[in-house]
User: Fold this.
Amino acid sequence: MPILEVQHINKSFGQTQVLNDISFSLERGEAMAIIGSSGSGKTTLLRCLNFLETPNSGKIIVNEETLFDGSRPTQPSDAEIRKKRLHFGMVFQSFHLFPQYTALENVMLASLLLAKERPDYKQNKRVIHEEIEHHAIALLEQMSLNGRMTHYPHQLSGGQQQRVAIARALALKPDILCFDEPTSALDPELTDEVLRVIRGLADKHTTMIIVTHEMAFARDVADHVVFMDDGVVVEEGRPQDVFENTQNERTKAFLHRFSQNS
Ligand SMILES: Nc1ncnc2c1ncn2[C@@H]1O[C@H](COP(=O)(O)OP(=O)(O)O)[C@@H](O)[C@H]1O
Ligand SMILES: [Mg+2]
Assistant:
């Protein structure tokens, strides 16, 4: 069974249809790269998965649980949406760390908020806090940020901030980790630093969706590549097929344009 099934997702903003019948599935432990020119709907697709946008139709199924079904429109409560969001960890282009909190506090924050909803929170506050702190420290260590835990975002490089953001996304143990152009705001050296971390997660079979313009990385690390253009999936498959044996004319044109620009 796939861990994620996206079925026939449509999304319009006013008269503009931004996602047009998007379908794909993702297996557990698989890394999927989504590639496509600017404006093709990649961010909107990730935002739909994370319930930051509501599709007009289609279905989103995670672990056989239907999280969204456009044929049965309901108005989920804020608590229900928060619960659905827990399936997805999000890493954005521009980190979005809280400047007033340290690296460690940024990673712990969501887990602490969630713990406060536990019925045993008051009784076991100290133990729960310690558990959350230990887990956050382990994640920051995994991101090679051992000496940076008490630093504030402004004291960290972009690459370090993005690694904090990845640790934060992992803190709630999501089923699927989603990256939206995680290195587009970074210079080449820091890009490599962050790509190494993502590659390490892929090696450990973390289930991931990575929207990226890093073609060499996608080809090397992804198990599955989805190519989007103008709100449509125009091609998908194994990287060697999509990159080396491109069938679709729009994919060919994009890859050609890209290889000339870079
Ligand atoms: N909230 C919104 N309201 C209106 N149009 C939007 C909104 N968000 C995205 N769009 C439009 O949807 C299209 C796809 O955008 P986006 O998903 O950001 O593409 P990508 O991430 O591939 O660059 C663009 O034309 C963009 O202007
Ligand atoms: Mg985008």
Q: What stands out?
A: The first strand starts at residue 4 and ends at 13. The mean pLDDT is 94. The first helix runs from residue 42 to 49.
